[in-house]
């Protein structure tokens, strides 16, 4: 009996975008540091970069995340 079991790649139906390999993968095949997801479909995973850019832009424009008017003296990020 093995002391440690090899972890499987992931659950079928979970889709990720690998930033290192620049491709869609089913299940988390690469390190968490190098992937975006999970997504419900491979098409959503293929648009992961666009989705992340749109969210970043939305957050940059959100006044709740603005450094302006920060009276705590911190950077806000």
Enumerate the strands of the largest sheet in spatial order, edge to edge or round the barrel.
Answer: 2-1-3
| N-to-C span | 48 Å
In N-to-C order, the SSE pattern is: EEEHH
- The percentage helix is 10-25%
Q: Helix- and strand-based class?
A: alpha+beta
Unreliable sequence segments: none
Find the count of extended strands (DSSP E, 2+ residues): 3
Mean model confidence by pLDDT: 82
**Silhouette:** elongated
Cα-atom radius of gyration: 18 Å
The biggest sheet, with number of strands, parallel, antiparallel or mixed sense and barrel status, is: 3 strands, antiparallel
Task: Please report the number of helical segments.
Answer: 2
Strand content: 15-25%
Structure description:
The protein is an alpha+beta fold and 77 residues long. 25% of the residues lie in helices and 17% in strands. It has two helices and three strands. Strands 2-1-3 form a three-stranded antiparallel beta sheet. Strand 1 and strand 2 form a beta hairpin. The radius of gyration is 18 Å and the shape is elongated. 6% of the residues are buried. The model has no long low-confidence stretch (mean pLDDT 82).
